[in-house]
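Milestone M4 deliverable, item 7.
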Amino acid sequence: MRGAASKIRLIGLACSTAIALAGCSMLPPPAPETAPMAPEDAAPQARPEAAPSAVAAHFAATQERRIAQGLLRTERAPRDLPISASLIERAFAEVALRDEYQIGASAILQRSSPAPLRRWDAPVRLSLEFGASVPAAMRQRDTDLVSRFATRLSRVASHPVALTGGRGNFTVLVLSEDERRAIGPRLRALVPGIDAASQALVEDLPLSVSCLVLAFSRGGTNTYSDAVAIIRAELPDRTRDMCYFEEIAQGMGLANDSPVARPSLFNDSAEFAVMTVLDEQLLRILYDPRLRPGMMDAQARPIVRVIAAELMGGQS
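Output delivered:
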């Protein structure tokens, strides 16, 4: 990737309960020079730096509150939320073929708009990097989790996805508050030419955001070449697992969140903490060879409708 010739796109953002009523959002990189955002349109703003113990306590309380509210569910195929071919079609159009944020003349606006289909052509090689603060037991647990999830993604998408011990093209960084604030040199090494706004977003991540993913494409194409996900090391297990599942899946190309997608990870409510059967169907469709990167809704929708019906055995 080389400077101005490269096209960089932030495709996923997962939020904690601090803004649960507003939901989890997808946020593009800020324009280099923007006027202050209007409160109703603004992306989450950075908060004063918190001590590591306070960060961990915040996210532990957030998870406990969510579970008490019936959120962070772990059923992959909940009986109370059956899926259909028509739901799969509508959810795919919302999650894979729309963007949630737009860069305006002087602000980042929450404005839904059509987006082209985006995905990987090259094999996805996941590289998991832990900050020095992460204990050995957590490193082993999370490595096993991500390895199993990569195998599952590869099987579902019929596209090569694997955890590698060497250099990957999709790096997942698990960092404490202090480690993330000092991550600039590593980010620049992972993505030469990364813009200052994207780097600042990672370094100054507000406490309202628990994890995010940035996906990068070269030469203005709709085919991803690199991705970097940031996972807070202070997150408790279930929330951290959800971040791995959501950010890696979003980095595969399921970039948007929508209330239409239910049961799903790709929904502002944080109702589910696992990749559901609906999410798997969306991924299958995304990597179906009948679809191509760059397709807009009008081109893709008739094909998606056929594939969704096939996946549900002809049921609508």
